[in-house]
Structures are given as C-alpha cells and as structure tokens.
Design a protein that fits this description.
This protein is mostly helical. Helix content is 40%, strand content 3%. It has two domains: 33 residues; 130 residues, Alpha-Beta Barrel (TIM Barrel), CATH 3.20.20.80.
C-alpha cells in the first residue's frame, strides 16, 4: 500500500470518527436531550423575553375558542393557515381584507410606528429580563433585518423600512 493511500485512509478515518462522535453526543429523543449540559448563563438568567412579531401582527388573528390544539391558536401561523385552507383563517381574511388581498399585501401595513427599541430595552431591564429573543424570521420568510438571502422581503425594504433586529440588539 502506498504512503499516499495510507495518508488518505487515515484522513478519512479521522473525518468519519469526528462525525461519529458528534452524532453520538445527542440522539433525537428526550432521554438523550435531557442529558445535555445546560449553559450556566441560562441557569443564572431565570427570566427572559420572547417576542413574536412580524407581518402576521397586522391581522393579529387566530381563533381561540373555536379550535383544539395549542398551535391552531397562534397568529404567527396566519400565512400557513391560509395556504393550507384553514376555514377559520380563510373566512376571516376574506371578510376583513377581501378575496384579492394577498398575504404579501400586509407588508406595507406593517409599519412598526410605535416601535422604540430603547423604550423596549428599558422596559425589559426594569422587568428583570436577562435576555431577549425576537423572532427575526418566521414561517412566512419575512425578515426583520436586511437579509441578503431575502433581499426583497424584509423590514428594511418594505413596511417600517428599518432594521428592527439591529435596533433592538443595539438597545439591549
């Protein structure tokens, strides 16, 4: 066996072993995931703010009493419910916005005119929050920052015409 072939074989072995060790760390079930170490900052933080905000905030609709299941009651799934033919969402949408109003038509209506990142950050601090998570891109693909992957479907090009993620990140 040539030296070159041996080196390639050894290199391949190391690559395969590194992938094997990575996949051996956690398996896709709760018993495995429950064994993972929780980061110390998370243990110390105790309280944080999670924000779901985007185009779906314009209609801000989800049936609450009419449906079973927790995920059926979230407004952030508005676009998906329209696409999958959910009668509650389709009827609401047609009644409120008309048959020809598309989900993308919400973009100019998403103005964020009352958004003040400094006020939000101060409110979060006063509440004792140690971290903030803002959903930067939800199921509809609309980004709250100037994404190069979504250059025409983001909050800088449409709607509020500003980098919402950048502003909040700077403020907190």
């Amino acid at each position: 066996m040539s030296v070159k072939l041996k080196k390639k074989g050894i290199s391949l072995l190391f690559v395969l072993l590194s992938f094997a060790s990575l996949s051996a760390q956690y398996q896709p079930h709760w018993d495995s995931l429950d064994k993972r170490e929780v980061p110390q900052w998370w243990q110390d933080a105790k309280f944080g703010i999670f924000i779901h905000w985007g185009l779906y905030s314009v209609p801000a609709y989800a049936p609450v009493n009419e449906v079973d299941g927790i995920y059926e009651k979230y407004a952030e799934h508005y676009y998906n419910r329209l696409l999958t033919g959910n009668k509650f969402f389709q009827d609401f949408h047609a009644k409120q916005y008309g048959e020809h109003f598309k989900y993308a038509d919400f973009a100019p209506l998403f103005k964020a005119e009352y958004f003040n990142s400094d006020e939000w950050a101060e409110l979060f601090r006063e509440a004792g929050a140690k971290y903030v998570v803002l959903t930067s891109k939800h199921h509809d693909g609309f980004c709250l920052w100037p994404s190069t992957q979504s250059p025409h479907w983001n909050s800088v090009v449409m709607g509020p015409h500003t980098d919402l993620i950048g502003k909040l990140s700077t403020s907190v």
